[in-house]
Amino acid sequence: MSISYSWQRILACVVLFVVLGILMLSLVDAAPASIDVSYYKGEHSNDTIPDMIEAGKTYPVTITFRNTGMVSWDWGVEKFGLLYQGLQSSILVDPVFSRLGKDTEIKPGDDITFPLILTPPEKPGDYTISFSMATLKGDSYNTFPETFSKTVKVISEDGISSGSVGSIIVSSIPTGSQVLIGGDVRGNTPLTIPDLRPAMYDLSVASPDYQTKAVQVTVEAGSVSRLRVDLTSSNKTDISIEKDERYTLLGFLKENLPLLILTIAILFFGLQMLMMDTKRFPENHPVRLFVRPITIVPVSFDGKVSSRKSSKKGSTSGSENSGTGADEHGFRKGDSSATRTTGQTQSRSKELKDKKPGYGDEQKSKKNLKGENADELKVPDVDQQYQDISNPFGFPDGLKDRYEPLGVAGDDSYARVFKVRKKDNGSIRALKVSHMKNAGSEILQKEASVWGNIRHPNVVRLYKAEFDDDLSFLDLEFLDGIKYRGGSLTSLSALPKPIREKYAVSLIRDVANGLKYTHSLGIRHYHLQTGDVLLTHKMQAKISGYARGKNELGFSVPESDTREAPAAYLAPEQRDEAIFGNPGRKTDIYQLGVIFYELLTGFLPYSRSAADKASVEWHESGGNRLILPSELKSELSKYDMILSRMLATDKKKRYALVDEFLADLDIATAP
């Protein structure tokens, strides 16, 4: 009985342990799989990063993150911001860490948008870029767990990655039109369609407000097919095919220039070594006809000609008898070099010093040689004499490997503009080099990035911008201007004003079309004046100056009174935002009106000189009314209404769009 009772106790204990185990397992199953206790969380909600970007360009983009954590993001010991987690060796991102401002607070559920600039590498391919929210404390980053990644395709600047394929580059009016090939949407203009096999393609360009245009485009191997489509007119689509220089003979030679130079140098010096043995190349050998003119036999300071004796007794080697070794220095070929006296050596060396800059320096370094008079060998510093001749334009040494200076195109207190030739392709450019160190402010760099993406026939092309600690410059399209009385006038500021009405209208149309295009991209100029409108040799106007930085207003009008220039070209809202409101498109339209007024009348609006010409009382406050063009010249009355609207002090009375101004200008100038 005792044994049975013992087994019952053991069995009861086992059952109790099983029940407890089941209860524990059920509690574990009921617990949540994970508990999220993260205070800092941020998820990607939107971005404007394109799927495909071109090498050689920069892309302003935005990325939006949402605060999905438990606390607000604001300024404190930890600095919140967006951190780029990719490799800067692939796609460059500026800035790498975009921090929130001091007065910014992003509460849970709120969104924050960060502006960035992407710069693709030169090598085409697929690149993945990653971003996440992070905090910065001291020098350490603490990244949030959520990461946003996107793969971007980088194509070559002209869309051609090899000589067996071609590309199509489409631009249109208006921009942002949809491009389709065979019914497949390829993107919006301006658009580069890369790496297409050679064939005939059916391409169409469409915009909601205009009739779709269809065209057949031929793509050739190693070539770019460019289309310029104007949906606003019935003109035929402009198509041109350009051969990519990289896949031509000239391009091959340029690409392999170092190798070719090395090969030629090896061949040349190899021949020189062979030439030293007259048994291989006798005096009358044809090879000597080509090598002899560039074989230089140095004259030593003891008066001897460096040479090797031939195997024939009494005769000198070919190098001694070469024309450059004897005749140039005035020695008779039959003379023995060993018989020249020290006095003859000094006389001959002095002649060489007079003939060749720098030769006297070599003599001075040898002035302690036995038998020479040190006082007689003292010569002027000929290198100093030739310093200004070798670099008459003051061109920076750091740019000589890329550009050949051809002249100075302009100069002011901020920068000097050089006319240069690019050494890699021979193109003529205007190089604007800053006089100041550390000239590349963040705003200036972003403005230059935006300008570099503008493509319009009435906007000066910016090819490249570099901002270093010691040297900052802009590589611009060079415009040679118009010829006038033996000189060149390169900008509207240089034109003698007033100019003939038909030229004033033509030029202002060019400027207006450039502004219309940039306004459609959301870009404003804000400091447009005659010095920023450049001229081609065909008297076409192009707008420049889209990158000036925050520390410069940009008014450099050498032909005008500098005290009146800011008052004339600054719109009222730029002088007092509290009274006249914020700058915008209408600011550019006001400045366009100042230029048009000056071209037609020769005066600046609201100026004392205009009032005096019209016999109207002018007040020191700047004039209380606009002197109409007809008050200065009766035949300009048709522009009274136009300029009154453009130059209205009240922004509400100005043209809202450049299109409205162009429409009224067409009516006023209609025959």
Automatic annotation (TrEMBL):
Domain Protein kinase residues, every copy: 403-671
Basic and acidic residues bias: start-end ranges: 326-335, 348-381
GO CC list: cytoplasm
Keyword field: Membrane, Transmembrane, Transmembrane helix
One GO MF term attached to the UniProt entry: ATP binding
One Pfam family named in its UniProt record: Pkinase
Record field: compositional bias (Polar residues): 336-347
Transmembrane segments: 257-275
Residue ranges with Low complexity bias: 313-323
InterPro entries, per the entry: Ig-like_fold, Kinase-like_dom_sf, PEGA, Prot_kinase_dom, Ser_Thr_kinase
Annotated region described as Disordered, given as residue ranges: 304-387
Protein name per the record: Protein kinase domain-containing protein
Source organism per UniProt: Methanospirillum lacunae
